[in-house]
Amino acid sequence: MQTYKISINDAKKLFTQLNCDKGGINILSKKAKLHTLYIKQMHVGAANILKQDALSIGADLAVPTGVITAKEKYVDGILLGTTKHFELLARKELAQPFGLKDLAKSLKEYIKENNYKTKIMGVLNANEDSFFKDSRFCSKQASQKIESMIEDGANIIDIGAVSSRPGSLPVEPKVELERLKDIVDTIYENKYYEKVDFSIDSYEPLVIDYVLNKGFKIVNDITGLANDEVCKISASYNAQVVIMHMQNDPKVMQENPEYENIILDLDAYFKNQIQKAKSFGINDIVLDVGIGFGKTLEHNLTLLNDLEHFKHFGYELLIGASRKSMIDMITPSSIEQRLPGTLAIHLESIKNGASIIRCHDVKEHHQAIKVQEAINSIN
């Protein structure tokens, strides 16, 4: 008899290779993946009930000392268990008091499987102050660059005319549109939108309305739908909307950003903005945690490591860490030297749940992602 350790990243494939019973594969898969879920401000009664229910099925709830004697009325906790455990608890807690019914619904959403194909969003900038000069293009160069990006494997091309790098200043909407107009018209006239989806990196209603009328399908809003007019216009065109998180604005966002708990703070933010989007009739939503937008290096690393948490909303997750300064903080490097670090972050993000990768280097990402997919297909 021989034993060796295996990766359980794709349990279903491994169980299939063993020729397990088809009905049992789904059951086994649910037992193979471990989840950790932070629960904030539980009633102490809920904590005690959930602790006992979790232990009874082989899961567990980490709680502060003193919960058993109800020392504090409300406590935080960390629930640990497999997909199967969460599935059982989602049923058990439906009949329990102290807010556990709502928790049961959250658990059900958290373990819902949403498997999206990985897409590459290539970056094309029509401004002179974008932090990476190789992503800047004028209207005359746009056609050649767009065709090149499509050939290199882009699924989406994200076009912007205003820099959002730390310290950057806003631009008048008319100036932004003037920078974009020739490129957008070229896309429309050549029907490039039939070959690839186009996204507008803007939060200005004037700009968004113009491009959506010219074949663009996605609104990439770094303000996360702060402007009601953007909501109205996006809904009228039935556009997909990227809701990104940013603390403050680009001018001051990196001046000592602070969070009580970055995962929970962003979770609450996304919950509110999703509700807002739906109230305007927007249902095609993508979430972006906003790497580098009002975050320290530790904040960014925490978000990347715990990215899977945000899958419970049921929407695609976008990550854009292309050549950002967090790489320089880890290993000193110029913007032009950060492609390896970018690929490392983005490949790890895919493993943790991201399905849209926003990047400057489409060809290199396409190759890296295809190799990653080939490795994973063996499991």
What does this 3D model show about the protein?
Its EC number is 2.5.1.15. It catalyses: (7,8-dihydropterin-6-yl)methyl diphosphate + 4-aminobenzoate = 7,8-dihydropteroate + diphosphate. The chain has 379 residues and is an alpha/beta fold. The chain contains 14 helices and 11 strands. It folds into 2 domains: 33-110, Ribosomal Protein S8, Chain: A, domain 1 (2-Layer Sandwich), CATH 3.30.1370; 119-378, Dihydropteroate synthase-like (TIM Barrel, Alpha-Beta Barrel). An 8-stranded parallel β-barrel has the order 4-5-6-7-8-9-10-11, surrounded by 5 helices. A 3-stranded antiparallel sheet has the order 1-3-2. Strand 9, helix 11 (297-305) and strand 10 (316-319) form a beta-alpha-beta unit. The longest helix is centred in the C-terminal third of the chain and has 18 residues, at 262-279. It is globular, with a radius of gyration of 23 Å.
List keywords for this structure.
single chain; eight-stranded parallel β-barrel; TIM Barrel; alpha/beta; 11 strands
Enumerate the spans where pLDDT stays under 50 for 5 or more consecutive residues: none
**Which percent band covers the strand fraction?**
15-25%
Strand-pairing-aware structural class: alpha/beta
Gross geometry: globular
Radius of gyration from the alpha-carbon trace, in angstroms? 23 Å
> What is the β-strand count?
11
Q: Please summarize the sheet with the most strands.
A: 8 strands, parallel, barrel
Named CATH architecture of the largest domain: Alpha-Beta Barrel
Summarize model confidence as the mean pLDDT: 89
Number of helices: 14
CATH-derived topology of the largest domain: TIM Barrel
Neighbour order of strands in the largest sheet:
4-5-6-7-8-9-10-11
Taking the alpha carbons of the first and last residues, their distance comes to 22 Å
The CATH first-level class of the largest domain comes to Alpha Beta
Helix content: 40-55%
Question: Could you state the CATH homologous superfamily of the largest domain?
Answer: Dihydropteroate synthase-like
Protein name: dihydropteroate synthase
GO molecular function, one term: dihydropteroate synthase activity
Pathway: Cofactor biosynthesis; tetrahydrofolate biosynthesis; 7,8-dihydrofolate from 2-amino-4-hydroxy-6-hydroxymethyl-7,8-dihydropteridine diphosphate and 4-aminobenzoate: step 1/2
Cofactor: Mg(2+)
